[in-house]
Amino acid sequence: MERIGLVVHPRRPIDRALATLRDWTSAEGIDLVQIRTPGQARVEAEAGDIASCDLVVALGGDGTTLAALRVAAPAGRPVLGVACGSLGALTATSADHLREALERVEAGDFTERSLPALEVQGRASHRAINDLVVVRDGAGQVSVSIYLDDALYVRFGGDGVVVATPLGSSAYTLAAGGPVVAPDASALVVTPLAPHGGCCPPLVAGPDTAVRIALEPGWGGARVELDGQVDAIIEPHDPIELTARLRPGDATLVVLGGEEPMLAGLRRRKILMDSPRILARDDRNPADRV
């Protein structure tokens, strides 16, 4: 490697991981530059161009790794996620083991995990690794019409809608009652947010489906969010249409082996939990635990 791009969490303490990265790149004669991301004011290195980097290192957590994946995907650069806290679904190593991880990447001792993205077309073209969210920005509901390949699925009034990738299915859409999609599946998840009446359950759509959202904001307007970051503010009574498609193999994540399976991680973080009846039975009969 000749140059590494750096993406950092805007506020989280990353001093130890940053010191390790600076020391290692200096000793190896590798340039370290910072890749600017939208809304990022924290500066830890000289700004650089993503296309000139061999690797992108994200210091923070899953959110920072998502931001790095979004900026690295157009240039086809792999991202090494570093947890400066607890390990998440996207981080391959912790700050304590960063030097070892860098040495393995330098030696080619890693694999690449290809991740799909959402290609979002509207007033501009964007991509999201986790999800697209269209949500009310103030008091009052928004009106949402959802189409699958121009076939109307449902119309409703409520808070908005989430369209997620398989990776994103364990994030906002799960919290809103949507299904979890296994990591090796290829699908889109569409989850209405707080619909007021009617019947509009979460929907799993095929990988080649175009999901079109026609939104009519109420008096409070609406927001368009990509991977948890506000992308656009929609003014009150300013209708907008967005189309989302799954784009396979869009981003590349560094995998070092031994990573925690997605379902195991969700259980460890108690996002998925067994029912109290089963847990009570386990307490009575510890030998029956699975």
What would the principal axes of the Cα set say about the shape?
globular
Number of strands: 17
Strand content: 35-45%
Give helix and strand order, one letter per element, not per position. EHEEHEEHEEEEEEHEEEEEEHH
Mean pLDDT: 93
Total DSSP helices:
6
What profile does the largest beta sheet have?
Answer: 11 strands, mixed
Structural class by SSE content: alpha/beta
CA radius of gyration is: 21 Å
What do these coordinates show?
This protein is an alpha/beta fold. The chain has 6 helices and 17 strands. It has helices spanning 15-28, 62-72, 98-106, 172-175, 262-268, 276-284; strands at residues 3-8, 31-34, 55-60, 78-83, 93-94, 111-121, 125-128, 131-136, 142-148, 151-158, 160-164, 188-193, 203-205, 211-216, 222-226, 229-234, 240-255. The strands form 2 sheets. Strands 1, 2, 3, 4, 5, 6, 7, 9, 10, 14 and 17 form an 11-stranded mixed beta sheet that branches. The mean pLDDT is 93.
Q: Which structural traits does this protein have?
A:
290 residues, alpha/beta, 11-stranded mixed β-sheet, 6-stranded antiparallel β-sheet, 6 helices, 19% helix, 37% strand
Task: Describe this structure in a few short sentences.
With 290 residues, this protein is an alpha/beta fold.
